[in-house]
Specification:
Elements (H helix, E strand, L loop, with lengths): L19 E6 L2 E6 L10 H16 L5 E6 L10 H7 L4 H21 L4 E5 L3 E2 L1 H8 L2 E5 L3 E3 L13 H9 L1 H10 L3 E2 H7 L4 E3 L4 H13 L3 H14 L4 H17 L1 H11 L8
Parallel strand pairs: 2-3, 3-4, 4-6, 5-7, 6-9
Antiparallel strand pairs: 1-2, 7-8
Length: about 280
């Protein structure tokens, strides 16, 4: 029986629907990038609104999982190159400095928050849009969607954690291939490479993503967060450092309400309840 209750989330600040739409149902917050005319390209205003939504969601105890998707036919085309050029036509790099200063905090927030973040890739995910999806914990992709690195083809390096996540997901050799050849990656290949978690029919994308979000939302969220952070740190830690971190984390987990409930449920031979 699903114990998740519907809730209405009061946003910290009213978001302009021209850039972002948020909706919360059954403890799942859905954030929709909403610039469909430009394939949900990210400008500074969208990045700022996205960060505010993430920070508010992280603090809201009624929200137990987050779904990120795009309006219209694309997930996200990446950074808004037109915006970057118009604001600083002679030095567009200044625009990218401003944009990434906010967007990169969004990536850090996704990777550090305990609450699971799931990308529902409803269409092309390119450039920073791809890297934003890769920063999420789980990725559900529609059959007709595709992924594309894009940046190097336009003379731009890869931002938004792309150089961090790609080699960790697919290995250094394949990451270099993706960076240097910049070929579109169709849904089935994306699944085979480990870039996405699941591939589903187009008309089932939001349904399957919601079911997955509801499933993880019933898990012990703070425990998932500890494991998530341990996995994040594992690539930069020695075995001894990682073992020490794991030792502390499992002790903290066992003493937490989630840990006590999980152990008691095991001893009583019942399903644990974390809601």
């Amino acid at each position: 029986m699903n114990k998740l209750a519907s809730t209405t989330v009061k946003p910290v600040e009213q978001l302009r629907p021209s850039r972002l739409v948020t909706d919360c149902q059954q403890n799942i917050l859905t954030i929709t990038l909403n610039r469909p005319k430009v394939l949900n390209a990210i400008d500074l205003e969208m990045a700022e609104q996205f960060l505010k939504s993430l920070l508010a969601a992280a603090k809201n105890p009624d929200i137990r999982a987050i779904v990120l998707t795009g309006a219209g036919r694309a997930f996200c085309a990446g950074g808004d190159l037109k915006f970057a050029h118009q604001v600083n036509p002679e030095t567009p790099g200044d625009s990218f400095l401003a944009l990434t200063s906010t967007l990169h905090v969004c990536v850090e927030e996704i990777r550090e928050m305990s609450k699971p973040v799931i990308a529902a890739i409803n269409g092309p995910a390119a450039g920073a849009g791809l890297f934003l999806a890769l920063a999420c914990d789980l990725r559900v992709m529609s059959q007709s969607a595709y992924l594309k690195q894009s940046n190097t083809s336009y003379g731009l390096s890869m931002p938004a954690g792309g150089t961090f996540m790609l080699p960790r997901l697919v290995g250094m050799g394949r990451a270099l291939e993706i960076a240097m050849l910049d070929e579109p990656i169709q849904a089935r290949e994306s699944l085979e490479l480990g870039l996405v978690t699941r591939v589903v029919p187009d008309n089932r994308l939001l349904i399957e993503t919601e079911l997955l979000a509801m499933r993880v939302a019933q898990m012990p969220i703070e425990t998932l967060g500890r494991v998530k952070r341990l996995l994040n740190d594992s690539f930069d830690s020695t075995l001894s450092e990682q073992l020490a971190a794991e030792r502390q984390a499992i002790a903290i987990s066992a003493n937490s309400p989630e840990g006590r409930e999980g152990v008691m449920a095991f001893l009583q031979k019942r399903q644990p309840s974390y809601i």
